[in-house]
Specification:
D-Maltodextrin-Binding Protein, domain 2, 3 domains, Arc Repressor Mutant, subunit A, alpha/beta, elongated
């Protein structure tokens, strides 16, 4: 029997039989007479090459293969039902959904406040957050997988399909173990020239990688890069265990991580926070979100 001949009804019939353990009751449950019901079960067994049902004169039981198949089929039918429901309202669902990219550091710049405000203002729009790097956010917007995103660096692009808003600049701080005896207030980064640096890897954010090297170069040294990470929170956690020091945006001082201290760096070089968004799709929802962004995404959220 070709797989094209297997239909959802075969699976529904089997689930009914597995739960009723009676051909007559299962057939009645499926609103079909018993002969075609039995034929459908036989067709399914023939296609699978497995005996799903153990029959005797008194009762019906599932074989080991039948029990395993029953578990899978229940989930398959549930997924099919969900897909049918979603597709019935597909056009409306698309118009009422926003996919938003973010980097973990945005949690400390007001992302939660923004999401709450948007939900209250637009309860009919579903917002899905997707954590990813700045580069991936840009590419996902270009490919239509994201509607907008929050980048923690200046994004290079020349596409007419992406709009950008530069939200604000933020100071860089040096994150050091709390055991270090460093005076309060701004410090020169070359004070730490002999330390192991934990730095954002270039693949995840070329801007931050190059910017941190520039801060060190401005102070007259090349940092000894010991570890490279893909998340700022990882860098702060590494510092808390004594694995080195890190240059991080100011918002990371609000993580509440134990065992670390932060000091402003003497430099004019700053971190940038940017909002990217798709042009030409989901316009009203994106516009509504952009209206709220400056009120909630702030340096000291």
């Amino acid at each position: 029997m070709h797989k094209e001949a297997i239909e959802l009804r075969h699976l529904r019939y089997f689930v009914a039989l597995a739960e009723e353990l009676s051909f007559s009751k299962a057939a009645a449950r499926c609103n079909v007479s018993q002969p075609p019901f039995s034929v459908a079960i036989q067709q399914l067994e023939s296609f699978l090459g497995q005996k799903l049902i153990v029959r005797n004169s008194r009762n019906v039981e599932l074989s080991d293969a039948g029990r395993a198949f029953h578990f899978r089929v229940r989930h398959l039918l549930a997924q099919a039902s969900q897909s049918f429901d979603e597709m019935r309202g597909f056009d409306g669902a698309l118009r009422r959904r926003l996919n938003v990219g973010f980097h973990a550091s945005m949690i400390y710049r007001g992302l939660g406040s923004l999401m709450q405000a948007f939900r209250e203002a637009h309860p009919d729009v579903q917002v899905s957050l997707h954590e990813m790097s700045t580069i991936r956010q840009r590419d996902s917007i270009l490919h239509g997988d994201l509607d907008m995103g929050f980048a923690h660096s200046l994004v290079q692009h020349d596409s007419p399909r992406i709009g950008c808003i530069n939200l604000f600049r933020e100071r860089f701080l040096v994150c050091i173990p709390s055991s270090y005896r460093v005076p309060e207030g701004p410090v020169r980064i070359d004070l730490f020239r002999d330390e192991n640096f934990i730095i954002f890897n270039r693949e995840s954010s070329p801007f931050y990688f190059d910017t941190i090297l520039s801060i060190c170069s401005e102070a007259g040294f090349v940092p000894r890069i010991e570890h490279q990470v893909a998340q700022w929170l990882t860098a702060v956690s590494f510092v808390s265990t004594g694995m080195g020091i890190a240059v991080v945006p100011e918002c990371l001082s609000r993580t509440g991580t134990n065992g670390v201290a932060f000091r402003p760096i003497v430099t004019e070089i700053a971190s940038h926070v940017q909002c990217m968004y798709a042009l030409g799709t989901n316009g009203p929802q994106i516009a509504s979100m952009l209206e709220l962004v400056p009120k909630h995404i702030r340096p000291h959220a």
